[in-house]
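HOLO CASE FILE
Compound: glycine
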Amino acid sequence: MGRNWTEIADKIIRKEEKVAARNKGKIPYTAKDHVFDDRSDKKDICWWTNGFYGGMMWQLYNATGNELFKECAVKLEEQMDAAFLNYNGMDHDAGFRWLPTAVANYRLFAGEEAKNRGLLAAASLAGRFNLNGNFIRAWNDWGDDRDTTGWAIIDCMMNLPLLYWASKELGDPRFKEIAIAHADTAQDYFIREDGSVRHIVGFDPVTGEFDREYGGQGYGEGSSWTRGQTWALYGFTLSFIHTGDRNYLETAMKVADRFCDRIPEDGLIPVDFDQPGEPRYIDSTAAAIASCGLITLSKELEKTDKTKSALYLEAAEKMLSALDEKDCDYDPEHDELLTRCSASYHDKAHEFPIIYGDYYFIEAIWKLTDKELFIW
Ligand code: GLY
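Model generated. Tokens follow.
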């Protein structure tokens, strides 16, 4: 029998009401001993995941109308203003920071302050565009021997919706054109023949010529870091939605087909599809993000390709069922929702709570129960 997604949504809401009430003013990334940490301090305010808890609060507010969630989301958005004053702390993740916060707020209430934040974030992202290489530079240098001036990463596909949004708001095509140029480059240089996806690609920052691939957060060069696959799957789906360009739809499907082929029998997603069999490190964020991408893709294909639409939905439900059964902590006294997330294959720590896992799990369940606030 199929899972009761509405019951799962209700369990999440009951838990998160308690979580939000005791974590006011925090910006969590992970949890230790079931208690959220806090990245709201000046030194951490630019951390790339800081928007996700705000996004959770908006999704919960959208589903319930409970003012507590709105209060938490607004507070977090205000705290994040400090990031605008730190050029070096900013990178291409302006989308991850301000789409789930300021832009979500703006979509609900059309306030000027929220719009202003979203547009400043979009301008910052657009300013990272490399004209000769047609890509958005991912990171600033880290002060070690790596020169990242010419680096682009697949994750950026999820930041592009900030540019699509800004163009629409301003009636100014520049932002959208930058997003399209980057997406086209990503299509050419990140997507492999078999539908798997590279994480980092280095270009010559002056001429824009392709240099090489890097292994990034996956097992190694040439491997398939699962979260990277999901950023491409969902990201190209979103670029299709915002532009109508069917090349992006085809790319999203190519990546989705490859991903679906490699979902293990038990529905739990490894950190990298090409990692050794043991230890079997799990990354539940990849399962949650892939589910969001696949459900969205499935909806887009409902009328034109019923077979693929059903297949993608089934794959998403398989992963979400596995998360619900084996990886969700619904205890209202525990802050985290997903328990087995991994940031990077070669990190020492694996399988711990990470806030964007919680965010995307909620977004996926909301998609299945018609509660979603579309924020991308
Ligand atoms: N965007 C960074 C990551 O997925 O870990």
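CASE NOTES: Residues 155, 217, 227, 343 surround glycine (CB under 6 Å). The mean pLDDT is 98.
CLOSED: yes
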